[in-house]
Amino acid sequence: MTSAKDTPNETSPQAPRVGRPRMPRAYGLPTHTRGLLPWSHVVERMREARAYWISTASPDGRPHATPVDGVWLEDRLYFGGDPGTRWYRDLAANPAVCVHLDSSAEVVILHGEAHLLPGMERSLAVQLAEASNQKYGYGAKPEDYEAGGSFVFSPSVVIAWKKFPNDATRWQFPETE
């Protein structure tokens, strides 16, 4: 049974289904659900990350991976950049994106969509500016966020582990089933 702190933020549309990732049997994933990671593990790793690797696809299908700065807030990743970058142009044409962190031992992989925000409410803009400045020592002002140009990534499937294969965990949000 999961506790409230182990489920996504109440602003999420619905709590995800939790279980094991789908992998070949030869990988040795347990068939039981004991030892699954709590959602709080994902939240902590995403909040603490200095960079987020995003993988996009160009309109002709070519893959592209690059690190970006960002802020994890209320189970979503907010990030921005110059409209001239390849990843920005890719996301403008195709919102599908994969996000992962640096570690190959303590893995967090998120699949979902990132959408360009034309602007945002002042309260969110203030939160993002404060979090970015605290995390990086620099960042946009609330007015910059309010003006638009940031992306918000919402996960549909998240996979994580610390001690593969024993704790390999998958969260799947209902709208993707």
Principal-axes geometry comes out as globular
Query: Helicity, in percent?
Result: 10-25%
Estimate what percentage of residues fall within beta strands. 25-35%
The total strand number stands at 9
Keywords, please?
4 helices; disordered N terminus; 177 residues; alpha+beta
What does this protein look like?
The chain is of the alpha+beta class. The protein has a single domain (4-170), classed as Electron Transport, Fmn-binding Protein, Chain A (Pnp Oxidase, Chain A). Helices cover 22% and strands 31% of the residues. The chain is built from four helices and nine strands. The chain has helices at 39-48, 86-93, 122-136, 142-147, and strands at residues 17-19, 52-57, 63-68, 71-73, 76-80, 96-100, 107-117, 150-161, 169-172. Strands 1, 2, 3, 4, 5, 6, 7, 8 and 9 form a nine-stranded antiparallel beta sheet that branches. Strand 6 and strand 7 (107-117) form a beta hairpin. The longest helix is centred in the C-terminal third of the chain and has 15 residues, at 122-136. Mean pLDDT is 90; it is low at 1-5 and 9-13.
